[in-house]
Amino acid sequence: MMKKFLWSFALSAIVLAGCGKKEEPPAPAPAPVASAPAAAPVNTEEKVLNIYNWADYVPEGMIAAFEKESGIKVNYDTFETNEALHAKLVAGNSGYDIVVPGSVFAKPQIEGGLLQPLDKSKIPNLSNLDAPIMATLAAKTDPDNKHLVPWAWGFTTVGINKTKVAKALGKMPMPENAWDLVFKPEYTSKLKSCGIAYLDSPTEIIPVALHYIGKDAYSNDPADYKLATEMLAKVRKDVRIFSSTMIDDVAGGKACVAIGWSGDMNIAAARAKENKSKDEIEALLPSTGALIFFDTMAITKDAKHPNNAHAFIDFYLRAENAARMSNEMNYPTANKAGVPLVKPEIAGNKTIFVEADYFAKMIPPSSFTNEAREAMANAYNSFKKGK
Ligand code: N2P
């Protein structure tokens, strides 16, 4: 009888831990020695979690569901660029527990000690992640996958309002390489009438410009930056918006062509439909390839709520939550267990989950040295100013 009771107690403790619940098993009976026994670790953190993520990246209700189940109050803030997040982390005391840098920035952040290693024993759902993706992340960015857990991946590409672009181009056919629409004066001079928008971030635009002129998107060579800047200068007068609200700008008709993110362009397409617009919006797959990005969750080195952070990471890694992200935000998940739960129309959308043939053409993320980041910021700022 006693034996059976103990067994079921142990099992329920394991099950509770697996559910990410906060209950702790009662302390074991004191051992018959004079010194006090070591206390079982207790989560003494206040029930708060501060998250800083990209805008338009979390399905509606997901944070509320976590709060309800865990009793942890989440403060959820958003940013628009890797630069904005990076500046906060470098300054220190950001107040955030979980941040979601692109892997290109996460690497220097790990090396700079801005992120803390994960306690993997608190994240059993790590086993849901796609092993080849994790191996790539380990090889290129985060040795032994110590710090980073994928939120989503996607790519930077050209998005268009097909209807408006066709009108603005008139007799001119669509180019074979969609990057021409945003970088080639023959096209930009026509499309400026319906609005060209670029993401407002050096590390989004300069790598794409480098790729367009046939250079390494993550080049460290100042001569390459000079060439990219010269190319960009030719289209500067045609660019109307440097956007940090790209979904609205494209869905609302302020821009007909954009350098934007794949999922956001798909969200814009869906939003335009909801708004009963007759215009058709589309993310394109440029013939020379688009730039892949990987956004990763990490815990800041000075996080005040690391236990709560681990609990949230494990919650997000449940197959059904990962699938909801893909279904609602239009970004592919790196959660293998979640993939079968993705709706067929999302899984089958070639501009969300790209096909193997196109994937092979895409430019994988690398990382920026501090010097390269600085060179990009300079190149971008002079481009933006038009000088
Ligand atoms: C947020 C998309 C972020 C993608 N909607 C760029 N890392």
Short summary:
With 387 residues, the protein is of the alpha/beta class. It is 42% helix and 14% strand. Bound molecules: pentane-1,5-diamine.
Key features?
single chain; D-Maltodextrin-Binding Protein, domain 2; 2 domains; 17 helices; 10 strands; disordered N terminus
Describe the structure.
With about 375 residues, the chain is α/β, with parallel strands linked by helices. The protein has 2 domains: about 50-155 and about 295-355, D-Maltodextrin-Binding Protein, domain 2 (3-Layer(aba) Sandwich); about 155-290 and about 370-385, Periplasmic binding protein-like II (D-Maltodextrin-Binding Protein, domain 2, 3-Layer(aba) Sandwich), CATH 3.40.190.10. It is built from 17 helices and 10 strands. The protein has helices spanning about 1-20, 60-70, 80-90, 105-110, 130-140, 160-170, 180-185, 185-190, 200-210, 220-235, 245-250, 260-275, 305-315, 320-330, 345, 355-360, 370-385, and strands at about 50-55, 75-80, 100, 115, 150-160, 195-200, 240-245, 255-260, 280-285, 290-300. Strands 1, 2, 3, 4, 5, 6, 7, 8, 9 and 10 form a 10-stranded mixed beta sheet that branches. Helix 2 links the parallel strand 1 (about 50-55) and strand 2. The longest helix has 17 residues, at about 1-20. It is globular. Pentane-1,5-diamine binds near residues 56 and 102. Pentane-1,5-diamine (N2P) binds near residues 54, 263, 264 and 293.
